[in-house]
Amino acid sequence: MAKAENTKSLRRKVRNSYIISTISIALVLFLLGSVGYLIFNAVRATDLMKENVAIHLMIKQGTSDERIAEIGRELGAHEAVKEVTFVPKAVAAENFKEQIGSDFVEFLAFNPLPDAYEVKLHAQYSDKDYVRKFEKEAASWNGIEEVVYQRAVVEQIGSNINKFNLVLLLFGGALLVIALILLNNTIRLTIYSKRYLINTMKLVGASKWFIMKPFLLRSILHGVYAWLIAAAMFLALVAGLGEGLPEVTFLAESRPVYYVLCGMLLLGILISALFTLFAVNKFVRMNTTKINLY
């Protein structure tokens, strides 16, 4: 009777250890998935900020319509240019009038603003060095009088964004290392509870792979269970952010969310199987006389 109760108690402890291990993996996957999602949105927000910086190419007075159209075609074919908008001088005057709140054209009796092209570059071409290069290139074109953009904004965006991305990556890396260390200890404790079973299988002549195989299969299964829990938590987080902070999650797209979920699944299976392999291998290689001393 006492033996049966001890057996039930041992099974309960083993089951609880696997539950704790699965929950630990799920929490790690959830944290890593959330950080990955945050990093993606930060990078996407960075790209949008860079791509919204406008560069104005002022057309010289007296430039022919043919040359103005040709400049537009050159800009449209340029590899760095994402968007080109022609701004006639009349439209520029209306925009400027709205900004200052008075009709300066009526006061001056003429419109001093030139026709212009408003250009926005792709994010990868929006660093300050390339913008300066593009400025020199465009200024040398026939029909361009001046290239105007907010230089301070371009430099500030690049500097601040690089610092922010560095901090975010360091935080994500530190979180990954800490989580993996804690998870490794959890899985090792789970395997520790079965050290006598492993030792018994060794004594009856079981091969190393024969001993490891059921542990690895179970670890993969628990990795999938952990992913299901983590995926549910992650999707709830994304949905909650979408409802509560729509201005933050306007960058959220379905494809990146799928990427994060797939990454969580692969990572869950990988870390569960890998740490289980290391832990089981340790007890398989351990001397039988030392199994009680571990």
From TrEMBL:
It is found in: Cell membrane. Pfam families: FtsX (PF02687), FtsX_ECD (PF18075). Its main location: membrane. Residues 170-287 form the ABC3 transporter permease C-terminal domain. It is a multi-pass membrane protein. The chain crosses the membrane at residues 18-40, 166-187, 215-237, 257-280. Gene3D superfamilies: 3.30.70.3040. Residues 53-147 form the FtsX extracellular domain. Keywords: Cell cycle, Cell division, Cell membrane, Membrane, Transmembrane, Transmembrane helix. Belongs to the ABC-4 integral membrane protein family. FtsX subfamily. This is Cell division protein FtsX. The lineage of its organism: Bacteria, Pseudomonadati, Bacteroidota, Bacteroidia, Bacteroidales.
